Amino acid sequence: MKIELKMPALRPDDDALSVLCQWNVKPGDVIPAGDVLFEVETAKVVSQIEAETRLRILSLCAEEGDEVAPGTVIAIAETVEDEDPAPETEGT
Amino acid sequence: MAALESRSPAGDPKKPEWLRVRYNAGETKEVLELLKKLGLHTVCSGANCPNLGECWARRTATFMILGDRCTRNCRFCDVPHGKAGEFLPPDPGEPRRIAEAARDLKLKHAVVTCVTRDDLPDGGASVFAAVIREIRDLNPETTVEVLVSDLGGNEEALGTVLAARPDVFNHNVETVPSLTPKIRSGAKFERSLAVLRRAKETGRSVVKTGLILGLGEEDGELFETFRAIRDTGCDILTLSQYLRPSQDHWPLARYVSPAEFDRYREEALKLGFPCVLAAPLVRSSYKAAEAMEAVRAADVHTFSKVFKE
Question: CB distance B23–A10 less than 8 Å?
Answer without folding.
Answer: yes
